Amino acid sequence: MTRKGEQYDGAFDLESLESSLCSGDRRALARAITLIESKRADHQAQGTELLERLYPKSGHAFRLAVTGAPGVGKSTLIEALGLHLVDLGYRPAVLAIDPSSSNTGGALLGDKTRMEVLSRSESAFIRPSPSGDAVGGVAPRTREAMLLCEASGFDPIIVETVGVGQTETAVAELADSVLLLLAPGGGDELQGLKRGIVELADFVLINKADGRTKSTANILAADYSAALSILGRANDEERVQVQTCSALEGEGVAEAWRVIEQNMQYFVDSGERVMARANQARQWFWIEVKELLSSDIAQESALAIVMSELENDVAKGKLLPVVAARRLLKEYRAAHKLG
User: Fold this and answer.
1) Buried-state track 246-269, b at ≥16 Cβ within 10 A, e below 16
2) How would you classify the pairing of strands 177-182 and 125-130?
């Protein structure tokens, strides 16, 4: 027996899938994300066609990235924030990026199990995805999944990064706003002095401001406010704000959302969102170009042999990587008579 939107041969009925997805059907949205994440060539072709159909219906939602080191309470905060948004009449979608299993390639943790209350809401959508080989805290097809969520009427789109700390700079290339979540007692007191994800953050939230760690959280918030003031944002509207919250108790979540909304309104009114989305589209274009060229080279048997030989020479220290890369490019051009 097949599910709606699919056929017996494993192909997807795009007409039915598109119709169901655009009507807000969460199961159709989940199947569409499965389609664009598939590595099967036929699924990839169908996924591209589906994205082309839905592209004009996307781009309207607010895109928020939530990042921070493991253990700071990202999932707890997102669930509390998501429930607050549902109460306000929003339809939030959560794309939770989990570390990949080295055995199966699937997500190890599965944030849907960590957001049980939010996942039961008909107004919310939660999708855990494995990070795979992607770097920067996101999954290989996070951008496409965001477009599908938007076409299905979800807004805002919340991306929870995998949680690897200072290297998660890729989130700034796909989100409108970046929320950095920290917690007292985890060594984060030193991070305010480092540039990286801290510099890219639009809002810093200190979690676990409750019980015995409340005073420590307040001190950490003051330290971060001082550290971030050194970065010298252009004006008061762009200045990074630092607040405290208790995601577990729900304290400070509504206040945090108000600040995020204010920042987003300035982002839209100033015209910065239009420019940012254009830059993100350019970056996405070049990412796809690089991936397609790399895949094209790997699939050509003759070039694959050359690539393997060059890779071995690089590993043995016989050849400089940049020299090897240029030789491979020369072989590729010769094979395609590109001059």
Assistant:
1) bbeebebbeebbebbeebbeebee
2) unpaired
DSSP state of 70: T
pLDDT-based confidence at residue 64 (cuts at 50, 70, 90) = very high
CA angle 68, 270, 197 (to 5 degrees): 15
Do the beta carbons of residue 124 and residue 153 sit within 8 Å? no
Q: Could you tell me the domains of the chain?
A: 1-57 (1.20.5.170), 58-270 (3.40.50.300), 278-335 (1.10.287)
Q: Is 294 exposed, middle or buried (0-12, 13-18, 19+ CB in 10 A)?
A: exposed
Name the average pLDDT for the chain.
82
Identify whether the C-beta of residue 66 lies closer than 8 Å to the C-beta of residue 74: yes
Lowest mean pLDDT among 1-5, 16-20, 241-245: 1-5
Mean pLDDT of 256-269: 90
